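Practice problem 4.
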């Protein structure tokens, strides 16, 4: 009993610390950029006490939607990764493993080749992400049972196949090569409140539905036989997790492109300290994913003033060494 109380207190402490880091990161992010705006000015603008229309426009129309998008997208990828790692019982699984990223890349590539506007690029990416992911889902859904190993392997094969098609389309359409390449490396440049109005509600609702499964995910993470012995329908839970992850990841990829490591390392990081209690792992993954992506985005737009470094490059540079460190720490 004392041990459980200690774990609960420790988990709440992690949540509080992560929230504090998140709010600090938001204020730092509002202060960063080509235009020099002090923290005092940022506070005045947020409280609507500033008369500077240009700086107000920069904060409200450019920086704030980008910050909120980073938090929501980072959170979506991280909570999806946490759920998928539980049903696969494998810490190496990330949200892109079931073909979502490569499907979105095909959609975005076709939209660029057709020279469509950014809104249609996002729509194409979202639709093709859903198609590729649900193709893998239905391909491996036989007799109302999902074989996670076959699903994992078929996802890897589809990712490889679709990535090859994207590469071929890029070579055949060299005039759009840089646009497609930049999109595949991820960016929050096009973030706006119009996008936020579309993505915020489904992300929050689905993330909440994810959280409602925390007890079942705890049980499944110890094995499907164990789950069946206590009356948990593991096949039903797997389907819920897969569908939630497909939708959240499709929203994220279509909005910001392909951003790696967020859904892989964030849940793994918190599991090292808190174990497999999904009551805390899921909300912490969401918050931690938002913090990680927001910090990476700050770095991506601070390295050079002339252009933003693609976000996927920054998450890879920081995520890969961090993941290696976490793996070595977990082995010890």
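Answer key:
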């Amino acid at each position: 009993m004392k041990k459980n109380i200690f774990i609960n207190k420790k988990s709440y402490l992690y949540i509080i610390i992560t929230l504090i880091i998140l709010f600090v990161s938001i204020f730092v992010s509002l202060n960063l950029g080509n235009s020099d705006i002090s923290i005092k000015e940022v506070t005045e603008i947020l409280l609507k006490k500033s008369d500077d229309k240009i700086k107000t426009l920069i904060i409200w129309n450019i920086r704030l939607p980008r910050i909120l998008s980073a938090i929501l997208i980072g959170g979506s990828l991280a909570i999806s990764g946490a759920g998928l790692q539980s049903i696969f019982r494998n810490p190496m699984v990330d949200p892109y493993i079931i073909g979502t990223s490569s499907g979105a890349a095909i959609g975005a590539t076709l939209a660029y080749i057709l020279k469509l506007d950014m809104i249609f690029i996002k729509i194409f990416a979202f639709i093709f992400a859903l198609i590729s992911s649900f193709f893998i889902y239905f391909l491996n859904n036989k007799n109302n049972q999902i074989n996670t190993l076959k699903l994992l392997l078929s996802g890897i094969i589809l990712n490889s196949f679709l990535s090859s098609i994207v590469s071929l389309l890029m070579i055949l359409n060299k005039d759009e090569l840089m646009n497609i390449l930049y999109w595949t490396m991820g960016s929050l440049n096009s973030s706006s409140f119009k996008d936020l109005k579309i993505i915020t509600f489904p992300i929050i609702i689905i993330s909440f539905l994810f959280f409602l499964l925390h007890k079942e995910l705890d049980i499944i993470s110890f094995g499907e036989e164990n789950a069946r012995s206590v009356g948990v329908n593991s096949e039903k839970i797997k389907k819920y997790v897969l569908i939630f992850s497909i939708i959240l990841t499709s929203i994220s990829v279509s909005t910001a492109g392909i951003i790696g490591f967020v859904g892989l390392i964030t849940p793994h990081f918190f599991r090292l300290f808190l174990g497999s209690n999904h009551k805390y792992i899921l909300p912490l993954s969401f918050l931690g994913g938002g913090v990680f992506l927001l910090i990476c985005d700050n770095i991506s737009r601070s390295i050079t003033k002339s252009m933003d470094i693609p976000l996927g490059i920054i998450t890879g540079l920081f995520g890969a060494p961090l993941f290696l460190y976490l793996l070595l720490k977990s082995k010890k």
